[in-house]
Amino acid sequence: MTGLDTLKLGAQPTGRTLLTADWVLGHGPDGHRLLPKGEVVIEADRVIFVGHRFAGEIARRIDLGRSLISPGLIDLDALSDLDTTILGIDHHPGWAKGRVWPRSYVTSGPYEMYSPQELAFQKRFAFAQLLLNGITTAAPIASLFYREWGETVAEFTAAADAAGELGLRVYLSPAYRAGGMVLEAPTRMEPVFDEARGLKGLADAIAFIGEQDGRFDGLVRGMLAPDRVETCTEALLRETDAAARDLGCKFRLHMAQGQMERDVVQKLHGSTAPEWLAKLGLLSDRLIAPHATNATETDLRLYADHGVSIVHCPLVSARGSGSALRSFGKVKAMGVNIAMGTDTTPPDMLLNLLTGLMAARIVDASPTAVRAADMWDAATLGGARALGRDDLGRLAPGAQADIAVFGLDDAIMTPAIDPITTLVAGGSGKVTRAVFVAGRLSMRAGAVAGMDMVAAQTRAQAQYDGLVAKYPDRSWDHPPVSDLFPPSYPLQTDGPT
């Protein structure tokens, strides 16, 4: 019997490794199933056995004790920058807080607020955070508010390198857009478009996928990422869909997620965004569509009829705008595939599962509409289904050895009951003990292969503080940071209270 500390961090162990724990979440013909004192055997990048009493030869046996061995979690709206949405938790309205470019900023010329080195670092740091939270497959998402326009091939080449070096499975390409919202006066936001620039961004993304897809033994895969539906033109979306079909990849488009989007799309196209895409013939199983919190009954039916997957990000929706999917149980019953995303800091999938469970029960006013297992399914099987991968999101012979180990011995989660219910109710990725991706040990006990997290945290905070200092440049009337983002309570620097 050996421990995880005998394995080299960042390496795929040679020979067969048998993992055992108090609980294993295996997969059978009817879905996930719990195996008390179960065993998982991995060899190279594959699972070769899930069950009890493996009879074959092994190189090592590792007992993980009071833990759950689970399929790695899949995050299809994965935070890949230093999150700016948290600035809006208590600071409103968004148009006055740098969330929409004022005309003065557009006229003076938008600029990149991070250097190329900073852009590369934030991806690496974000990817490491995903691994710390048990996420083994990610489709990165980042804000374009602080960008000159779209994302660049150079930063995503660095992102692909980071994913391969850290050991994270990713689906990615630079995000692009044909337009954006401009603040012409307080509360008055108007869309402006530069279609040629959007098509150039798409061409760059296509070239990127051609060069990067399949790197690091398949850890890096392509996904097209037009930014948000209200920033896209018909031509850009048609070309994106055609490119996804030609490349054999998915494309992700944020829509049905907010009132501003709904108002703009109604004004431009006379319908909701899903209805517009349906008229264009662009709804299909190639499309992955976060967030659906503002979707109508008709929108959801269109998604179901055309095989569109949604990405549910309950934490950012509930915390940021007070919105929720209406509802998880209803959408699931309609036959819409639901995957999960984090889309904010902390990139904690377990916290998202807890938030999603609570939001669903509040929306439906029922404790039976959604179970903890439904949320876990979305974070594993739902994501795999959206990607068209039957070798991800499950522990079964032949599946990729993408594994997350969650501790059940945390005092905060005691007493523990059913392991899935315990972990969802516990609501924190901090109990993630280890992560394997394609059989490689990518994270162990808070240590990520190829990343000094203590030094990285210090650098990340300094970089973020530098970004916030530039917010007045792109905020209406350019108020100082102290007015944009005042502290929760007044500051007192000296004297008695």
Note down, in words, how this protein is organized:
The chain has 2 domains: 128 residues, Roll (Urease, subunit C, domain 1), CATH 2.30.40; 319 residues, Alpha-Beta Barrel (TIM Barrel). A hairpin with a 2-residue loop joins strand 4 and strand 5. It is α/β, with parallel strands linked by helices and 497 residues long. Helix 2 packs parallel to helix 3 and helix 13 crosses helix 14. It is globular, with a radius of gyration of 22 Å.
Short précis:
The chain has 497 residues and is an alpha/beta fold. Helix content is 35%, strand content 22%. The protein has two domains: 1-72 and 393-448, Urease, subunit C, domain 1, CATH 2.30.40.10; 73-391, TIM Barrel.
What is the CATH architecture annotation of the largest domain? Alpha-Beta Barrel
Structural class: alpha/beta
From the 3D structure, determine the CATH topology of the largest domain.
TIM Barrel
How many DSSP-defined strands? 22
Shape: globular
Point out poorly predicted stretches.
none
The CATH class of the largest domain is identified as: Alpha Beta
Could you give the order of strands across the largest sheet?
A: 8-10-11-14-15-16-17-18
Largest sheet: 8 strands, parallel
Average pLDDT score? 96
- CA gyration radius, whole angstroms: 22 Å
The amount of beta strand, in percent, is 15-25%
The total domain count is: 2
